């Protein structure tokens, strides 16, 4: 990628700042339309919010309750497009809403029928009402006293940072140049005061990188205002950051294949307990915070709230000692803006063009990243007067595209890359062994991450390539020295 960067002469059509779902989605869209694209990420791809989601590809039952039908329909359509283009990473998951009050069954029964109807041809399966026995069969660990029955509906589940890495690969295959560990430190301006490029720092060498651009897109999510203030230190805040946490437990807390959806917690939020990679993920919270940081930490009261809510629904209440991992992410929520230049193409995401010509895309959610990217590129092409070219991402397979096997194995998430990882294991059988008995992560996955998936540090491999750190922090720490040794060899680093 760095030599691609060096080889490029003249201005790029697009320079994108930020390597999360928003920025990488824009890179895929713009590169596949034939524009020249440079994307710079200050840390690892997905280091921000995009690896810290609830892992749902969903329409958002909450938006339905709020009556925001068009938003739900848009997200349900994107859910269908994503499963079509990345079937190795998106799966269909049954969600059960357990009912303890008499009115819940008809209320959620009808609501979730509507949810599925809104998906039209992109539907994931019909919802249905469950008896008490059927609810218990699907959720053997659910609290039984007062349980009347439930409603089951279907939504999408995915692996967020693995999808992101596959999208980085897709963008690269379409000709984009994407560099991680290259943070943008300044924006350059032409004589008319319009932003015309960026200055970045290669974190590994300290070297300065300069790139001229026809349009600079700020896709830094929760950090968007920091980048806007590089162009205009007085820019009013666009983002109202809000934190959400998840706790991870072992599978015994949710042993079946169905997830639990709690439509109303004590603070009026939706809470999920989800089977994910052989574990149970429970979340999330919504805590306004003053400022976005790259490594947000869960607050004590957030941990207490998730544990308390889980204990209301699970037979065996999880305790702090059961927590295997905890992760916090920051929602890049967009404030209600008053700028005349704000072009709110959807109520879910916002595209904002500052007086300096810096284009910022923020808000939305993982599920709608493709639609956000299409809107952004359309807007940027218009703004920068680039030649118009049609968007092709609705039909563009994501890197690794492969239909899942009937009996998906550990490597099924790698799709068509699985055979290459098996090839590594065949050439060196020691790479096929688990790095820790608690998790199915092997040396071959680490070598693959370093060689083909842009992993530069031990944490990149453990957190966002094989997900060990998100599943079991203690196991990830035990694996770290072996991962370091493998990566040292592959990335030609010293001890
Ligand atoms: C708790 C939680 C749960 C969620 N669950 C879901 C879900 O289940 N389904 C769903 O669809 N959506 C979900 N979302 C929403 C979704 O995760 C986000 O909308 C999405 O990940 C935002 O992506 P982004 O690229 O805008 O931001 P980010 O992923 O944060 O990416 C921004 C990137 O910009 C980089 N950056 C910042 N400054 C610079 C700079 N100066 N130079 C270079 N790079 C820079 C950062 O390092 C970061 O990697 C959830 C969000 C949260 C917080």
Could you tell me how far the N terminus lies from the C terminus, measured between alpha carbons in angstroms? 25 Å
Largest sheet: 10 strands, mixed
Total number of strands: 21
State Rg. 22 Å
Bound molecules: flavin-adenine dinucleotide
Low-confidence stretches: 338-347
Helix count equals 15
Roughly what is the average pLDDT, rounded to an integer? Answer: 95
Strand content: 15-25%
SSE class: alpha+beta
Helix content: 25-40%
Q: What overall geometry do the principal axes of the alpha carbons give?
A: globular
Task: Output the keywords.
495 residues, alpha+beta, ten-stranded mixed beta sheet, nine-stranded mixed beta sheet, 25% strand, binds flavin-adenine dinucleotide
Walk me through the structure:
This protein is α+β, with helices and mostly antiparallel strands and 495 residues long. Helix content is 33%, strand content 25%. Strands 3, 4, 5, 6, 11, 12, 13, 14, 15 and 16 form a ten-stranded mixed beta sheet that branches. A hairpin with a 5-residue loop joins strand 9 and strand 10. Helix 2 packs across helix 10 and helix 13 crosses helix 15. The longest helix is centred in the last third of the chain and has 18 residues. The protein is globular. About 2% of the residues have low confidence.
Gist of the model:
The protein is 33% helix and 25% strand. The protein is an alpha+beta fold.
